[in-house]
Amino acid sequence: MRTGSVSGGRVSGGMAAFVLAIGLGGCAFSDDVTGTVAPAGPSPLAARAAPPAPRAAPAPSTPTASSHPDMQPAALRAAEANFSRCIASLEPKARQAGVSAAGFRRLTTGLTPDMSIMKKLETQPEFSRTPGQYVEMLVSETRIQKGRQAMAENAAVFQAVERTYGVDPYVVAAIWGIETNYGGARGSYPVIQATATLACVGRRQAYFRDEFVAALRIVDRGDIPESHLRGSWAGAFGLTQFMPTAFQRDAIDFDGDGHRNVVDSVADAMGSTANKLKRGGWKPGMSWGYEVAVPRRFDYLLADKSIRKPLREWQALGIARVSGQGFPNGEATAYLLLPSGANGPAFLMTDNFKAILSYNPADAYALAIGHLADRIRGGGPFVQPWPEDTRMLSRAERSELQQRLARRGFDPGPADGTMGQQTRVAVREFQVSVGMLPDGHATGDVLDRLRN
């Protein structure tokens, strides 16, 4: 699909020596850790005093190989032995999706599973960094400078992206920087082998059969050479990390060469990323959000994603931009986000923050993208300090917190260790009941009160 024509820049880069798992990277599926971010300079938090050591936590509830029937050793061995037959059985599905018979044979003959991927599939990562540490780690001075350089070197591409899609080009550049460190850390797994493995082995076969077929189609139709189609263990690839089905849906041929190549063409990768953001609801001419100051005695029950108000109404409640400037469009709606609770920075988030979340549904990730975009543009750091004494909960502790909330009569949802909206509401209700600030932030202090 051709939607614009610009001279596409070409970049290359190998896998970084250090790969950091940052959650739901790029367009990956919900278990993937695809944000292959190489360190881009020391974090400003590195030199600060470490927070007090947390108390001993219960044994982690990380799933083992026996947590799912398809992940048991015997099932894995059987699936590995049946791999060739499983792949052959997917030919009708691939042919229906447009993969040629010759292409299917060429790309699957001799294909073997990479069983090392199963350990990654079943391991649930623990995130020990606070939102502040996460954001400051990603929005480093080195990454800011590299972003400015990358945009200068590809100025025509970014101008065309903004003109064509109405998306802030600095946000597109920030996604490039955080997803692959501007191409330096894209992942080294052959995407066809990785998705084939997951399509026939393990607990997510139904999901990955579509990804495998999409990967075959990408190579068969000539968009990206098979030797260049490398990425994360779960199949996300390219300068801004697309899953194969997301590529099929959102990728565009922005450099006009007849191929949608988000691996080798900066133009195609940036255009495709902008296209995805636009499909996610990006509105031209609007910021992703504003850092704000919350007045004393504020009703923190209003800090909820489900509560959206025009900016003028938030202003009437005493919320003001920390810059001292007014809101450019008082009728635009936003919700109040407190990523570190009432003691940390506060933000009013617009629909464009939701568009960034469509790329990766993690608040800290989207906040880092928006902040990096502003810093590349020339903006300064956040004004309000991040709290340094926050104790993050392990997955086991988060599950324990949910169980204790339920025993107290609150409804946090399943005790899965995931801090979703239902759990945050339950935390707020508990905080109200014991006289804590009801910011819905699940910290060590909240768990300690529940234990006592």
From TrEMBL:
Entry protein name: Lytic murein transglycosylase
Lineage per the UniProt record: Bacteria, Pseudomonadati, Pseudomonadota, Alphaproteobacteria, Hyphomicrobiales
PANTHER family per record: LYTIC MUREIN TRANSGLYCOSYLASE, MEMBRANE-BOUND LYTIC MUREIN TRANSGLYCOSYLASE B
A Pfam family this chain is assigned to: SLT_2
Residue ranges annotated for the Peptidoglycan binding-like domain, each copy included: 395-450
Region (Disordered): 44-72
Extent of Pro residues compositional bias: 51-61
Residues making up the signal peptide according to the UniProt record: none
Classification via CDD domains: Slt35-like
PROSITE patterns named among the record's database cross-references: PROKAR_LIPOPROTEIN
Gene3D superfamilies: 1.10.530.10, Bacterial muramidase, PGBD-like superfamily/PGBD
Positions of the Transglycosylase SLT domain: 83-374
